[in-house]
Amino acid sequence: MTDAGRLAAFSDGVFAIVITLLVLDLRVPEFHEGELAEGLLGEGPSYLAFAVSFIYVGVLWLNHHAVLQRVRGTTPAFSSINLAILFGVVIIPFPTAVLASALADGNTDDLRVAVVLYAFAASLMSAPWWVLFAYVRRHPALRADTVDQEQVRVQEARPIVGLILYGLTGVLGWLVTPLLGLIGVVVMIIFHGATSQGLRHGLWWRRRNAHRS
Amino acid sequence: MTDAGRLAAFSDGVFAIVITLLVLDLRVPEFHEGELAEGLLGEGPSYLAFAVSFIYVGVLWLNHHAVLQRVRGTTPAFSSINLAILFGVVIIPFPTAVLASALADGNTDDLRVAVVLYAFAASLMSAPWWVLFAYVRRHPALRADTVDQEQVRVQEARPIVGLILYGLTGVLGWLVTPLLGLIGVVVMIIFHGATSQGLRHGLWWRRRNAHRS
Amino acid sequence: MTDAGRLAAFSDGVFAIVITLLVLDLRVPEFHEGELAEGLLGEGPSYLAFAVSFIYVGVLWLNHHAVLQRVRGTTPAFSSINLAILFGVVIIPFPTAVLASALADGNTDDLRVAVVLYAFAASLMSAPWWVLFAYVRRHPALRADTVDQEQVRVQEARPIVGLILYGLTGVLGWLVTPLLGLIGVVVMIIFHGATSQGLRHGLWWRRRNAHRS
Amino acid sequence: MTDAGRLAAFSDGVFAIVITLLVLDLRVPEFHEGELAEGLLGEGPSYLAFAVSFIYVGVLWLNHHAVLQRVRGTTPAFSSINLAILFGVVIIPFPTAVLASALADGNTDDLRVAVVLYAFAASLMSAPWWVLFAYVRRHPALRADTVDQEQVRVQEARPIVGLILYGLTGVLGWLVTPLLGLIGVVVMIIFHGATSQGLRHGLWWRRRNAHRS
Q1: Quick one: which of B103, B92, B91, B111 has its CA closest to B47?
Q2: d(CA D31, CA D25)
Q3: Taking CB atoms and an 8 Å limit, are A16 and B21 in contact across chains?
Q4: Pick from C12, C26, C36: which is nearest to A113 by CB?
Q5: Of D144, D160, D158, whose CA–CA distance to D203 is shortest?
Q6: Where are the transmembrane segments (chains A, B, C, D) (predicted)?
Q7: Nearest in space to A129 (alpha carbons), one of A164, A163, A101
Q8: Cβ-based neighbours of C202, under 8 Å, separated by 6 or more
Q9: Where does the pLDDT of residue D47 fall: very low under 50, low under 70, confident under 90, or very high at 90 and above?
Q10: What is d(CA B20, CA A13) in angstroms, rounded to the nearest whole number?
């Protein structure tokens, strides 16, 4: 086991770049003289896709931050699983751009394809988080002193929920209507944001108590 | 409360990328053989917009740097507010590109739209700074030992001033003339740069005195 | 000899950006209404090239991480060799994009050129790693306490193997068939990933023993 | 005076991004089936411009690294001067792209313009380094213990030499022939690389002696 400092620095770099690259898809519209305002309004869907993906990457960073606080170091296997997580993070701008493109130029079929792609990508991205929590559960030496077995098991449930619900969201978006899939994705991102907070609040409470006793 | 190291690293990454991405809008002009010089001169407005936004992001980094020096750690809420601040930083290249585009290809109406967009974005970006200072004021445990309640309250006034004055700048740019809005934006950036310095000088003085006593 | 902290931070930044920039080549296809799905499927080769290069850069990072753990500091010469290594890392997106382009739009001749370029670049990239290990071998003061002369000598063999085998892969891809070259590149990346792990496992074993005794 | 850690991290981020962004100008040529090789060879000047700028940014990083090792902390003024230095670093991809463009598509007039722009930018970039060394000389408290007044004064001469010689290079490239300017730029970059090393060797020697006594 070696220090996780460089792992954190490398991961922070990737998160920072991904969250910033999203802005590159906010293109200045081509416009005829005097019609810049219309052009900007026509790009509305891009702005929506940008905002959703920014919050998504931000939530993933909060979760990643919370995980690394709970481990004491890294191993080659842990670093490799982390790379798989980053793979999922790095590709987010792509389904985002596809979604923005479908919202702007596509018909309902295209929107369905784009929503399913987004949900499918989000579903697959949950898998390495599951592997990570399972790995930490089976290697107790990696865990920081304040974290117990039970907390890791609870965490392990979250990516499984993500895998299933994002997948279901994609299926709904495909079979029923893209809008439903879009709403599902937004709900899931909020869920991940909220539970990451919940977990941490739990930990604080424990720490505070440990402090008092 | 946990260590703010990764928060700083992630934020530094975002600032570094944004300030560097600005250069991507300095495109090499297409030119006919022998007319590169004319082409470059025609891109003048892009260079102006680039320089203003570089200084803007630089000033924001100096301010962010000053804030993180004054706190002892982070909480999930603090991290989330920080993400909202970074959201504002990340989008700067977009109104910058719109402004450059309007300066190069637009008429007065387009320029008005671009200036108002820039001022509006800058005004909204002030809001999470306000929330941040209010949060630090209400959670004294977060403050570093050298910082007192009064200093935070003074800081809280700055983003409110920004919110109002950037907004006013947008209104002036809309009602009177875009040029006035443009000047207003530049004045505001200088104001933020100067007061960030002022604050820190104040703190040094305190520290030096604390050192002597 | 000075602390290698900034060297690691700078290198991590470069690795993080390169691995993230790869996604920029996953372009949203232009599509006629209702044909987004077909457009996405047509971009298949790009996705393959992206995945291979992501794993490649990830493996290089794991190797770089393993090297810096084994040294105690840096010298200007060490920093310069590191820059040469980063040069190799930074250019990876280029042969990747050429490969994706040849897979999508080229005939067998173009694919041959692209595979040879990829293998040639990978072969050349091995050279500064060789120089690095030779430098560390000749400057024992740089080595961390846990690393002995023998371990460095073993490491030195790996980039030489890479230089020769990537080169051979390029020759095979040229003389026989591009597909063979493509397979060779993938095999080599897996080899580098596996041996980086192997080396580190060896080190753990030593440390664990050292711990016990 | 506050810790220079975040200043270093932010600067490293900017250097890492700039050095990596250079690769974005290595575009895959558009090609007819079977003509990829010809297309790639036609991009030769881009590769040259890329290599020169990579080495340039690398040398600047080595110099920046050497400066921050010699100071104990930062002040708002020092941070602001550092931002001016980074401004110079960030714009390097632009004259690089102009140069590549002129080499590929321009005539002698265009090349002259591009070389003068490159030399002019390099000349201006030297100015904030001069200001930085002068600032450190006048604020001895900032200096690390191992650095004396004389060493800083010697350093101060280097950016002045750069300012004058890069400027002269531009003038020669304009009046005589662009090729001379191009050679001058390459020579200057090598000079900066070599002297950055020389300075540090000097310091090591001092430290080693200090160690012995």
Answers
A1: B103
A2: 17
A3: no
A4: C36
A5: D144
A6: 7-24, 44-62, 83-103, 115-136, 157-176
A7: A163
A8: C151
A9: confident
A10: 14
Most confident of A192-201, B41-50, B96-105, C6-15: C6-15
Residue D195 has pLDDT above 60, yes or no: yes
Alpha carbon distance C95, D85 (integer Å) = 32
The full DSSP string for A140-194 is GGGB-TT--HHHHHHHHHHHHHHHHHHHHHHHHHHHT-HHHHHHHHHHHHHHHHH
Predicted structure pTM score: 0.82
Q: Are A106 and C36 in contact (CB under 8 A)?
A: yes
Note whether C46 and C11 are within 8 A (CB). no
- Determine whether the interchain pair C37/A80 forms a contact, defined as Cβ–Cβ distance below 8 Å: no
State the smallest CA–CA distance between residue C24 and chain B in angstroms.
14
* Under 8 Å between Cβ of A188 and A165: yes
pLDDT tops 80 at residue B67? yes
Render pLDDT for B109-126 as a digit per residue (tens, 0 to 9): 888 888 888 888 888 888
Residue A30 carries which DSSP code? Answer: P
Comparing B146-150, B154-158, D5-9, D37-41, the range with the smallest average pLDDT is: B146-150
Give me the percent of chain B exceeding a pLDDT of 70: 91
D142 and D165 Cβ atoms separated by less than 8 Å: no
Mutate to test the interface with D, among C92, C98, C103, C109 (most CBs of D within 10 A): C98
The pair of three-digit structure tokens given for residue C200, joined into one six-digit string: 């580190």
d(CA C152, CA C149): 5
Q: Radius of gyration (Cα) for chain B, nearest Å? A: 19
3-state DSSP assignment of residue B208: helix
Q: Which residues are CB-contacts of B120 (< 8 A; sequence separation ≥ 6)?
A: B166, B167, B170
Place of tokens 């579903």: A123
Looking at per-residue confidence, does B36 or D154 come out higher?
B36
